[in-house]
Write a structure and sequence with these properties.
The chain has helices at residues 49-66, 70-73, 108-115, 120-127, 136-146, 148-153, 160-169, 176-183, 193-198, 223-229, 243-251, 309-325, 332-336, 339-345, 384-405, 423-433, 445-457, 464-471, 487-518, and strands at 5-11, 15-22, 27-34, 38-39, 45-47, 74-81, 87-89, 99-100, 156-158, 184-185, 190-191, 219-220, 236-239, 261-265, 269-275, 290-293, 299-305, 352-354, 374-376, 413-416, 437-439. By secondary structure, it is α+β, with helices and mostly antiparallel strands. It has three domains: 1-83 and 160-171 and 212-252 and 449-461, ATPase, nucleotide binding domain (Nucleotidyltransferase, domain 5, 2-Layer Sandwich); 84-158 and 176-211, Nucleotidyltransferase, domain 5, CATH 3.30.420.40; 257-439 and 484-519, 2-Layer Sandwich (Nucleotidyltransferase, domain 5), CATH 3.30.420.40. The strands form six sheets. A six-stranded mixed beta sheet has the order 3-2-1-6-13-12, sandwiched between helices. Strands 16-17-15-14-20-21 form a six-stranded mixed beta sheet, with helices on both faces. Strand 16 and strand 17 form a beta hairpin. Helix 11 (243-251) crosses helix 17 (445-457) and helix 15 (384-405) crosses helix 16. The longest helix is centred in the last third of the chain and has 32 residues, at 487-518. It starts with a strand and ends with a helix.
């Protein structure tokens, strides 16, 4: 085996990246391009599949230009990308339509009907995953009703990373994480014919591609892809697991001795607990959350908030808008300077905030497409920084809500994502969960996880756990302990947070009807 570099491709919602790593897991180069998508009046959110591939090929060419002799030094590529959604191609491999993203909310009615169906208990127990408006299974049911012509033209239903894998290798496949949590059985790690029947998707069973584990099997890059990317024909390409699982691998979840939790505070908020096998998965009465396979037999159990830092971005945007009305130009990033200190100096509990700012509603630890963000408990003494403190507190309380739905809060939480850089977010999260926090110095966790899968497939490590021990454990930073003075504060706030969440629910449906009437 010659070569000394591995390449990870991570096609996220906002940015497509290609990252090169050496054989010790150290990042040596990166290229990226901004992504774009279209929001439709009916709640649809779509992305141009051809452009997504063109941008991916372009960032690989850019990486080749940035790193001398990359084409001869590369050993393999691992590919991951944004999860859920539906990206369909025809028999010739051409897109049937633009890809439907995880943000797509048009199948709200279909999600409700599946969740209320006679088969929901079986679907949930088999997949370990609740029904959400953004999933491929929900999208396909919507198409069955409203766009059958799309299904009649389609030969294969992909997710984002599967589409890129197809363009790189010509192989139609999906991975064990997305294939199983959408249509499968966590006990077998394969498709469940019973689940497919319960969803009413038997007529479209042929759309589901084979499940391929990239840590076991790779396929060679085609001549056409080589010409478009600048990389050599025949280079092994490994299909990564979905991006959140790749992030989990590279951010510290794979630690069987500690069995930690992992929180990703990015655009969305993702909260995971490690389960060594399918028997350790703890389902809940709400029938919500995700169970995703990891290489080697373990699982990650997830509860995922639709929005995390999007809530902070929204609040900062309000400040920028107000200043702009007075002729003062500010970038939201400018307002981050000194924000941690001001947030921690503000009053906890002066504003209660439920962080459901996404127009797609909420999916963890409950599923409600009509859920919306709200401030409660305000009075004339509540200031802007009190409200911003409420947003930070709301993210911490939402994390606790999610972990509680999966069982006991883990003894240690690993933390990554954009908000992990915030001292206020770290302190509030540790105190809200009453658990120590450890961040990790891994900037590109998604691409790193895809590369870890490739490293195992190549035989550089016998198992993904061994790779994590060598590449990830050394990057864990010092422990951040909970603030003992804040623990009782957040215990009290959590009781109020839950009570208020339950009381808000009837109003969400009324507000949804109001919005439809006003549209």
């Amino acid at each position: 085996m010659s070569g000394d570099l591995l390449i990870g491709v991570d096609a996220g919602t906002s940015v497509i990246k290609a990252v090169a790593f050496d054989l010790s897991g150290q990042q040596v180069g990166i290229a990226s391009r901004r992504n774009s998508y279209n929001s439709l009046p009916n709640g649809g959110v779509e992305q141009d599949m051809a452009r997504t591939w063109a941008d991916t090929a372009a960032v690989l060419r850019d990486l080749c230009e940035a790193i001398p002799d990359l084409a001869t030094r590369a050993l393999a590529i691992g590919v991951t990308g944004q999860g859920d959604g539906t990206w369909m191609i025809d028999g010739d491999g051409a897109p049937v339509h633009d890809g439907w993203l995880w943000l797509d909310a048009r199948a709200k009615l279909e999600a409700r009907e599946i969740a209320a169906s006679d088969g929901i208990d079986m679907i949930y127990s088999a997949t370990g995953t609740g029904i959400n408006v953004c999933q491929s299974r929900t999208h396909l049911i919507w198409m069955q009703r409203h766009a059958p012509e799309l299904l009649s033209r389609a030969a294969t239903a992909f997710h984002c990373k599967d589409w890129l894998y197809f363009k790189l290798t010509g192989q139609r496949a999906t991975d064990p994480s997305e294939g199983v949590f959408t249509f499968g059985d966590i006990a077998t790690r394969g498709y469940s014919e019973d689940v497919i029947d319960a969803l009413g998707l038997r007529p479209h069973r042929e759309l589901l591609p084979p499940i391929v584990d990239g840590s076991v099997e790779a396929h060679p890059m085609t001549a056409q892809a080589a010409g478009e990317t600048g990389l050599p024909e025949g280079l092994p390409v490994c299909l990564g697991y979905v991006d959140v699982m790749c992030c989990a691998m590279a951010a510290g979840l794979l630690d069987p001795a500690v069995m930690p939790g992992l929180t990703i505070l990015g655009s969305t908020g993702i909260h995971m607990r490690y389960a060594p096998d399918a028997g350790a998965v703890q389902l809940n009465a709400e029938r919500c959350g995700y169970t995703m396979a990891l290489p080697g037999g373990a699982y990650a159990q997830l509860q995922s908030n639709m929005a995390a830092t999007l809530n902070i971005d929204w609040m900062l945007g309000l400040g920028v808008e107000l200043l702009g009305a007075e002729g003062v130009t500010r970038d939201p990033a400018d307002l981050l300077n000194g924000l941690d200190e001001r947030v921690l100096s503000a009053r906890p509990g002066a504003a209660m905030y439920h962080p459901y700012i996404s127009s797609a509603g909420e999916r963890g630890p409950f599923t409600e497409p009509d859920a919306r963000a709200s401030f409660t408990g305000l009075d004339q003494n509540t200031g802007w920084f009190d409200m911003m403190r409420g947003v930070f507190d709301g993210l911490g309380l939402a994390a606790r809500d999610c972990y509680t739905a999966m069982g006991p809060i883990p003894a240690e939480i690993r933390l990554t994502g954009g908000a992990a850089r915030s001292a206020a977010a770290r302190r509030i999260l540790a105190s809200t969960l009453d658990a120590p926090i450890r961040t990790i110095t891994q900037d590109e966790a998604g691409a790193a996880g895809a590369v870890m899968i490739a490293a195992v497939q190549l035989g550089l490590y016998d198992t993904i756990d061994a790779c994590a021990e060598a590449w990830v454990t050394p990057l864990l930073e010092q422990t951040i302990e909970p603030d003992p003075d804040l623990i009782p504060t957040y215990d009290a706030l959590f009781d109020g947070y839950l009570s208020t969440r339950h009381s808000l629910a009837p109003g969400w449906a009324a507000q949804a009807g109001m919005r439809e009437a006003l549209a």
